């Protein structure tokens, strides 16, 4: 690894979660960390132990992840002004995270030192030097994030360079220049990175950019041209305000266009991108470079014609090299390997190329073309596999269900009611329930109907309910995708339903949620 | 205008519509063209008259737009191989569009000439030279788009430069270097643009980039650094595959960061961005640079604190300079001026600062915070203004409505039914209807109830129905926004409804659609 020319430093779990609409539970963070490691990311920044107990918890759990390649990094700040580093509780928490890498940020901009930190330039440098040295003494690889470096440098090159010098003296393994406000232009990045390399030739530099000018990727590339050997960013560019540098774009640029190998399996890039979207329940950005649904879609008649004659005509790379595809319909199938892994988890040995695997893959592809997505709905995928393999037993037969919504205009609240008519082994049951909303009523009526037959479902409850409208392609109607998370208090599982009717889509996901629990209990 | 250092060339209406999910009707295109002109765009590419009758129609209608500043451009290709230019029907259509500017594209890449065009290098150059000269002779300002220029140059600089030379000899006003496949990196753009300027110093150059590497904006900026004086792009970066260069980002970079003035009212940038999203019914990209909803949102506790102390700490520009705002709730109000213009259209003189204007603006702000959006729902905005001014008369009183959805599992299709109970001037009416889906049933029952009182509504029908799920901020539930377009065969109007219940949101938009028609008829 030490022979790599450029190292990838992912901060999806820390700076990414500063973005609006990008929330991750502790479990989500562990799943993403595992995936980043498998993909070949070099550093994974897991969180800031000093800022909240959830991050402390994450680092405790993360020890069981057994990362194959990546080094886990805890993030924090320099010691407080006028406090000895060994007495700073935030710094202590960084050590207690027991990560091989600790990344600390410090102030580069004189304005920030005097106006925000309200201390002296000298004390600021001491804070940097002391904290880096203290962590290095405890055998940590210390990465120094120079916050506001470019703004600070433009204001006063001497001051900004002196703060880096302090970090280098403290023993920092890498000096990361941060464009914290995202306002710097690529030619400025190139020039300033060059100046830093000249001033501090013995310490590697890195880059941390933000997308406030839609230039985060360009700035990272410019920095590599000027000698940076570490790029910080996030998957799909999530992050505060307009987001961080999008690693999903930087990685193929480096590997395919600049001949700088950074990951072993670039063809898994698209799946990784979708995985992070689905885990965080964010819609996939169709126009995303390299991995987007339309990244290799050809609409103009002339282009389609030319692509048929010669793909290079309108494709800057081979789509498969990043796991994407020219033909959108085919590409909807996000990785056969995921399905094989899932089957293995179920204890079902499924071989690539076997007839069973073939039939499951065909079925998944059909359903994905209909708008299903299984990345965050492992429960429904498990049911599908069980059905295809014949290990599935139907827990009930539905006769019909009915929902009713009555809206008044005299101040009376609306009334949502659902009835469910079903039978279990020939015994009929008819139930009715009211709820907050039609779906809630339907959920309650279904449980009420099944409870006499399956008392164990009293432990199962709905943990999350999410709706997404899928845009209709061409002239077809828009579809609704409903994702549900169910829990029995110990484990959780996701299920999915798709229909042009939101009630039916919800029903399908609700039924799968209970059905999976019953299949597993058998 | 000729003193400008960099000219903006918008191709939202042509290259933008090559993007998936970005469709514009003829009316949409005229509305956007008018808005681009008011904003100060220099060139507006309206379409390709040779490719479809809709674009020919557009150019006919566009003559009535009376643009104040922008020049309209018709787009097309060079003459066919082995055909005299004056006999080429596609070139004739370009002249018949009667625009002051004609933009034609030609091949720069030898591979494309021989493999796609299947002609000789010499004939290709003649095609370029002849077509430019012919159009220039007919008093058109001719812009030459050199397709695949960067790929062609990397393959053979001599060949690529010779094609530009042919365009310059023909009398092209500007040579636009196109990164058609979007695969070129900024340092390559800088170097190649420099080489072109050196080779052809007497003809201005421009740049047309695509976002396949997330570098379209960076490439445009690099080109300006190397001497380009025209930037081609689209609003919000719409366009084929990953999209075109995003003018919404380039404009503030030039104006605020490179001291190159390009538009007179930069503070209207955010409204323009939302306008194009809403007209094309695309969701706003929250993380968009400069104009996005979260572009100046501060989530991290430390950042919020620092911003309070010193805004420059975490804001690279003053948000108001692009019409955006630090406080998201305040910024949801997209331009008071739009509302005043709307009132003026209604013949209601509403002065900025008057009590009526104040109460309307407050109401709009309230509703926008609730998830309403009026950019594409002028009908609902008109009703709101009428209500606030007291010129509104309620056409009916709703007592209640009811919807029912019954799903069978025996192959019987689902049954959707709605009942509506209302009164008009004290006369009660109760109706029931079945429909394809609950909303369709509700629409039919409502019309059935109103028809005896207002027979004129038989002319009104539903032209479009769109649903969007609005993500819940913080812990609030997700809301549903329904946009409806109604028509009476002559004109169309948009209305909007928002609720946490999709049926109620649809009802609100349906009622507004009929209500507006009745108000206008009175």
From TrEMBL, chains A, B:
EC number, as in UniProt: 2.3.3.21
Domain Pyruvate carboxyltransferase: 6-270
Keywords in alphabetical order: Amino-acid biosynthesis, Branched-chain amino acid biosynthesis, Isoleucine biosynthesis, Transferase
GO BP term, pick one: isoleucine biosynthetic process
InterPro entries: 2-isopropylmalate_synth_dimer, AIPM/Hcit_synth_CS, Aldolase_TIM, Citramal_synthase, LeuA/HCS_post-cat, LeuA_allosteric_dom_sf, PYR_CT
Pathway recorded for this protein: Amino-acid biosynthesis; L-isoleucine biosynthesis; 2-oxobutanoate from pyruvate: step 1/3
Reactions it catalyzes: pyruvate + acetyl-CoA + H2O = (3R)-citramalate + CoA + H(+)
Enzyme class: transferase
SUPFAM superfamilies on file: 2-isopropylmalate synthase LeuA, allosteric (dimerisation) domain, Aldolase
Pfam families linked to this entry: HCS_D2, HMGL-like, LeuA_dimer
Annotated GO MF terms: (R)-citramalate synthase activity; 2-isopropylmalate synthase activity
Keyword Oxidoreductase appears in the UniProt entry: no
Highest taxon listed in the record's lineage: Bacteria
Family, similarity comment: Belongs to the alpha-IPM synthase/homocitrate synthase family.
Protein name: Citramalate synthase
Organism: Luteolibacter yonseiensis
């Amino acid at each position: 690894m030490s022979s790599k020319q450029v190292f990838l430093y992912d901060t999806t779990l820390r700076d990414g979660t500063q973005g609006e609409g990008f929330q991750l539970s502790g479990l989500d963070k562990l799943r993403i960390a595992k995936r980043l490691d498998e993909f070949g990311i070099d550093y994974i920044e897991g969180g800031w132990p000093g800022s909240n107990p959830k991050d402390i918890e994450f680092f405790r759990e993360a020890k069981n992840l057994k990362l194959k390649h990546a080094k886990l990094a805890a993030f924090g700040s320099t010691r407080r002004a006028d406090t000895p580093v060994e007495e700073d509780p935030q710094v202590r928490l960084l050590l207690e995270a027991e990560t091989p890498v600790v990344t600390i940020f410090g102030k580069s901009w004189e304005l920030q030192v005097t106006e925000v930190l309200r201390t002296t330039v000298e004390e600021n440098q001491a804070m940097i030097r002391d904290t880096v040295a203290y962590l290095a003494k405890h055998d940590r690889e210390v990465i120094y994030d120079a916050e506001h470096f470019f703004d600070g440098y433009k204001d006063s090159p001497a001051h900004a360079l002196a703060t880096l010098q302090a970090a280098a003296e403290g023993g920092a393994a890498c000096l990361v220049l941060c464009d914290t406000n995202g306002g710097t232009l690529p030619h400025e990045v190139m020039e300033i990175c060059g100046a830093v390399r000249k001033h501090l030739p013995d310490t590697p530099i890195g880059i941390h950019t933000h997308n406030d000018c839609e230039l985060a990727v360009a700035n990272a590339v410019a920095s590599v041209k000027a000698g940076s050997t570490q790029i910080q960013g996030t998957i799909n560019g999530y992050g505060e305000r307009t987001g961080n540098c999008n690693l999903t774009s930087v990685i193929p640029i480096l590997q395919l266009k600049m001949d700088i190998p950074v990951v072993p399996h670039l063809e898994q890039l698209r799946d990784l991108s979708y995985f992070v979207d689905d885990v965080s329940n964010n819609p996939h950005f169709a126009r995303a470079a390299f991995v987007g649904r339309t990244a290799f879609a050809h609409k103009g008649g002339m282009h389609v014609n030319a692509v048929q004659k010669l793909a290079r005509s309108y494709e800057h790379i081979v789509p498969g090299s990043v796991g994407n595809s020219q033909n959108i319909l085919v590409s909807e199938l996000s990785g056969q390997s995921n399905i094989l892994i899932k089957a293995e988890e179920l204890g079902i040995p499924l071989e690539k190329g076997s007839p069973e695997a073939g039939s499951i893959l065909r079925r998944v592809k059909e359903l994905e073309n209909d708008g299903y997505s299984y990345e965050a709905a492992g429960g429904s995928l498990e049911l599908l596999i069980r059905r295809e393999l014949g290990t599935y037993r139907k827990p009930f037969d539905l006769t019909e269900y009915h929902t009713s919504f009555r809206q008044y205009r005299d101040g009376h609240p609306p009334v949502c009611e659902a009835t469910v008519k079903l039978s279990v082994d020939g015994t009929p049951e008819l139930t009715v329930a009211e709820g907050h909303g039609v779906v809630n009523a339907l959920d309650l009526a279904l449980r009420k109907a099944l409870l006499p037959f399956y008392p164990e479902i009293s432990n199962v409850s709905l943990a999350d309910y999410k709706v997404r409208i899928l845009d209709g392609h061409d002239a077809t109607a828009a579809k609704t995708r409903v994702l549900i998370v169910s829990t029995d208090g110990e484990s959780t599982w996701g299920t999915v339903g798709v229909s042009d009717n939101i009630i039916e889509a919800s029903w399908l996901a609700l039924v799968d949620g209970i059905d999976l629990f019953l299949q597993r209990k058998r």
